[in-house]
Amino acid sequence: MLAGKRILLIVGGGIAAYKALDLIRRLRERGAAVTPVLTEAGARFVTPLSLAALAGQKVYRDLFDLTDEAEMGHIRLSRSADLIVVAPATADLMARMAAGLAGDLATTLLLATDARVMLAPAMNVRMWRHPATQRNLASLRADGVLTVGPGEGEMACGEVGPGRMAEPAEIVAAVEAALGGGPLAGRHVLVTSGPTHEPIDPVRYIANRSSGAQGAALARALADLGARVTFVTGPAAVPPPQGVAVVRIETAAEMLAAVEAALPAEAAVFAAAVADWRVAEAAAEKMKKDRSGTPPALTLVENPDILARVAGRSTGRPALVVGFAAETRDVLAHALDKRARKGCDWIVANDVSPRSGIMGGAENAVTLITGEGAEVWPRLPKDEVARRLAARIAAHLGSAG
Ligand code: C5P
């Protein structure tokens, strides 16, 4: 239910704008108050009168409408909402949002708001697949913007593929999840992410190529389902998502301490690429070249295995412990062995050999190993892998009660 929730609905200019009418009806049926904002292009597809009639409220259209009502009217309007929904979100509107433009009422509201924003993209399949749109989408998601859809299918322009706006029922479900009614509401989930840096001396360290992209996407997907997420991250290349509690660490030992401090949690996902070894005794001062030309010998010691420690806890073990297995060969065999050895419930296995392009890339091809067996997933964008995995975690915790 959405009783008492205030939603600002921005209707962009696309053929899918007609679905905004059904969306308003459904949101209001669940108790939400909907304030419509119609863009100039949107007004070519749907009339302000029909929007106002369904919403039972004035429709806002012009930036300068607001100044005579109250000074800074657009700021107030943008902040009065619990959620801003943009449906349909056109390629042009997404591009202007990603660039931070504020040339009309809709984009000004989007730039001025401190509320969460959800987009329901709708456009021609080629426009959706264009690198510019995908780049804008990635920037918007990194800014914490939520998305629902687009779906696949035949479109008004006659082409087939992704680009069709999500159905109103799907948008309502996403709105309910975003406003706290998600399947993981009230659950605490811990996610580790990124590489660790193990110091050699004050300026040098041992590291690995993990970008932290998969862990960040997963934390975001879990938060989108309503979970309270603690995100323990090493020095990653991608920023942590908004809406999660971020704990920044550098070394494996610090990661272990942060993880233990964050427990209890109902589920813990270990997506971090933790260094297996650290230098036994990191030098206190920068190491210098020896005149004889003999390079220094580094003595390595094993780092604590954070996943195995948490999975092996006799008290306070999360109900679901998920590990990752990044391998460069014999992925499945190593992953099965790892699941048994580390005592975790699930393993997400992937091939990180340079030929796969996965490490540091935008896509991932994983095999999920559970107690029931191995499932090979198709190669998907990392955020889609994250959404699927988050949905599986939600289903598992839901069935576990
Ligand atoms: O043994 P390997 O590093 O391949 O295991 C991968 C899994 O174990 C990942 O889930 C990783 O986050 C976790 N791990 C850990 N602590 C370590 C090493 C790995 O939590 N020291």
Describe what this molecule looks like in 3D.
This protein is of the alpha/beta class. It has 2 domains: 6-181, Flavin prenyltransferase-like (Rossmann fold); 188-399, Rossmann fold. It has helices spanning 19-29, 48-55, 73-79, 91-99, 105-112, 125-129, 131-142, 168-181, 213-224, 252-262, 306-311, 331-342, 382-400; strands at residues 6-11, 33-38, 83-89, 116-121, 146-147, 151-154, 160-164, 188-193, 198-199, 205-206, 228-233, 245-248, 267-270, 277-279, 300-302, 320-327, 346-351, 363-364, 366-370, 373-376, 380-381. The strands form 6 sheets. It has an 8-stranded mixed β-sheet, with helices on both faces. A 5-stranded parallel β-sheet has the order 2-1-3-4-5, sandwiched between helices. Strands 6-7 form a two-stranded antiparallel sheet. Strand 19 and strand 20 (373-376) form a beta hairpin. Helix 1 (19-29) packs parallel to helix 2 and helix 3 packs across helix 5 (105-112). The model has no long low-confidence stretch (mean pLDDT 91). The structure holds cytidine-5'-monophosphate (C5P). Cytidine-5'-monophosphate binds next to helix 11 and strand 16.
